[in-house]
Amino acid sequence: MASDPEIPSIGLTLLQRREIEARIVGPLIRGFAAELGLEPTLEIVRRVIVNLAHEAGADLAAQLGESTLGAFTRGIDHWTEGGALELEILEKSAERLDFNVKRCKYAEMYRSLGLADLGAGLSCCRDFALVEGFNPEITLKRTQTLMEGASHCDFRFTSKQSDPPG
Quick check: pTM over 0.90? Predict the structure, then answer.
């Protein structure tokens, strides 16, 4: 959902960056899986991506100068840039951010590249680690994703502490 701070964006949307990454990483994953086995390869990939997302969350909090749910919520525009996600906002407050993703161009992109089976591991697994890195007092609950064939993604963020007045 957030950009990777260690890689300059050079004017690309997050969706465009993920496509470039997928075109490189997808064949690498397939090659390593052929040699090492699918499960060990995917475990390594997941671990690396989760670590990168956790670091990106911490970097995002540092860039924003705060790690409140309100600050995190302001990042929605970045996530939806270029129509990457179509959201239905259900609740937006100091303690909660609930939304459904009705359309996910990330999922569509992975499918079009023949990487639908890798999409959740390359993209969706980032979300929980990003939030944890941003602020461990914010929890994310998600029970389904478009990437895995559901009708929508259900994102439910809760802050254990409310934003300071302000």
Answer: no
Tokens of 65: 């100068």
Amino acid at 8: P
End-to-end CA distance of the chain: 26
Q: ∠ CA 79-83-84 to the nearest 5 degrees?
A: 50
pLDDT in tens, 34-73: 999 999 999 999 999 999 999 999 999 999 999 999 999 9
Torsion of CA 88, 89, 91, 95, to 10 degrees: 130
Cα-based distances in Å from 132 to 33, 118, 135: 29, 22, 5
Closest by Cα among 72, 84, 82, 63 to 4 = 63
Q: How far is Cα 46 from Cα 144, in angstroms, rounded to an integer?
A: 18
Domains of the chain: 14-159 (3.30.1380)
